[in-house]
# Entry
Amino acid sequence: MGETSAADDVISVTDLRVRYRGTHADAVRQMDFTVGAGEVFGFLGPSGPASPPSNTY
# Structure
């Protein structure tokens, strides 16, 4: 695969932070990532893929 430019990015996230209700600490802190056209992306943690509630809109 060749390199992609910012113009090819479909998703670009900067400084992502996630904190669950009822907690005082961030579960995710200062995460940056991009997903380019045609790429597949998923979150994996110590216990495996994200649970369905994290995918709910």
The chain has a mean pLDDT of 78. The beta strands are 9-18, 28-36, 44-45, 48-49. Residues 7 and 36 are 9 Å apart (CA to CA).
